[in-house]
Amino acid sequence: MRGLNRRTSAAITAIVILAIIIAIYLGGSLLPDSALKADFSQKALKPSVDHIFGTDYLGRDMFVRTIKGLSLSLTVGAIASCISALIALVIGTTAALGKGLIDHAINWFIDVFMSVPHTVLLILIAMVLDRGATGVLIGIALTHWCQLARIVRAEVLQVRSQQFVLASRKFGKSPFWIAKEHIFPHVIPQFFVGLILMFPHAIMHESGLTFLGFGLPPEQPAIGIILSEAMSYISSGAWWLAFFPGLSLVILVLLIDKLGSTVRYLLEPREAQM
Amino acid sequence: MRSIIIYIVRGITLVLAVAVLSFLLAHYSPVDPIRQYIQANPGVSQENVAKMAEYWGLNDPPMERFGKWFSSVLRGDWGYSTTYKQPVLEVIGIRFKTSLALMLTAWTLSGVLGFAVGCLMGVFRDRWLDKILKRICLVMCSIPTFWIGLVFLAFFSAILGWFPFGMAVPPGVPPESVTLGQRIHHLILPALTLSFLSFANLALHTREKLIDVFDSDYALFARARGYNDTQILFKHGIKNALLPAITMQFAAFSEIFGGSIFAENIFSYPGLGAAVSAAGTGGTDIPLFLGIVIFSACFIFVGNLIANILYQIIDPRTREGIKA
User: Fold this and answer.
1) How high is the ipTM of this complex?
2) Which of A109, A229, A234, A254 to mutate to test the interface with B (most CBs of B within 10 A)?
3) Given A218, B150, B286, B294, which is the most exposed site by the fewest CB atoms within 10 A?
4) What is the CA angle B260-A195-A259, rounded to 5?
């Protein structure tokens, strides 16, 4: 990328990563289910040119399963982190605007949520909702908003005490106008970056929960299901069953992280570093 | 002293809130406690079920039930675990002891190694060694515990055969004749798995702190007096970086507890983490699960409390009456 300035190359990075993510998503949803048919002549093959991730004990191609799993993870992660980010936005703004008691109450509430390990809380919520996709979605949405809510709160508080907000208030602008013209433009970039950075967490918790058996049902091609299946074949030496799907998940998470930091750089070039 | 008391009071309200919240969640869950108890026994008539519901107070309003449950929790009666056929408190006690060995090993390992690697990165900042280590740590931050556990198991146990396939002790050996060596042999892989995540976090955090130290005026002055980076590290760096590292490590109790659920499941290690998922899957053992939720909240609170107290002991500036 010699000859391009940093902003342009950051934009290109973001577009490339986005393209990869969309490709994974489309690949997973467009691949026909027949690609996952059991084929016992191809049982438990090591990775080769034909099956780059190998095949499982039912002869299914692990690459196809992985792509489908990642696509499902992306869907669940996207919905859950969007809901969670909205909760964070509402709660963070309320905490910052409501003075004193409301602020304290919300902070205390966030502490309550942080004082139990997320995994335990997730399992509890998933159990209450009788497991399945809704359980995972709501569980992740309800446990991930805390950090972003704090960021939003701090950001709103900081903007609110700025000179230009005080000036607008003295000019008699309504709180709604101030929120629309001053506060939202400042909070939205942070919010957006927070949303993207929440995404990998959501994906990871989804697979973790599914792995433990509290998440998506076993007939779904989720990464967690693949890994928990692989666990029973590990003692027979079938390392590729767990290795490649998990590695793909890690790479996807790293890509999204990179996307988040790139977007942050594009939105706030002065504060963020590449 | 006063701040610690305030902190403890705050912690108690948090644990209480966690208890209310989790009890209400369990109350509205579709799990039927009577069905759990009789375990689909066809010999129990509808009439007896109704009697049982009356006897257990299942028809009472939720807050009243919570009051009854919580007061017996305070008296030390945490209910009866249907999964393990033992009182909940006993299950938690036994399992926590097993878990503690694992968690403590992982915790110490990640603390010592993470701090050491962080120091290394700080001294070699922006040189190739630091760049490589930083990359590795950033990648490690994104690796889920359940996957790395499986990878360790596949390579070290299945392919290389260096370590056993999980469990805390060799199968078929009576508990009194298990040697310490065997126990440690079984502990290594789960502990490595569990220390993976907090190790990377701590190393990166320590690196940032040390870079701040090396950029400071007193480091510049030390350099002017002829100290090199290693000497500055031992004279100033460790003092300044150790405190946040300790705080972070104690605050990581939550992560360690969460991670132990995965690590213990993968390595079939009979600890508290394995009990969490067993309580959830094997017929949904609500009393045990609620007990673990409360216990984990207390555990994390104790971690944060220790961090708080240590902070005040180590750093005189944070003590009361002295304004920095």
Assistant:
1) 0.81
2) A234
3) A218
4) 90
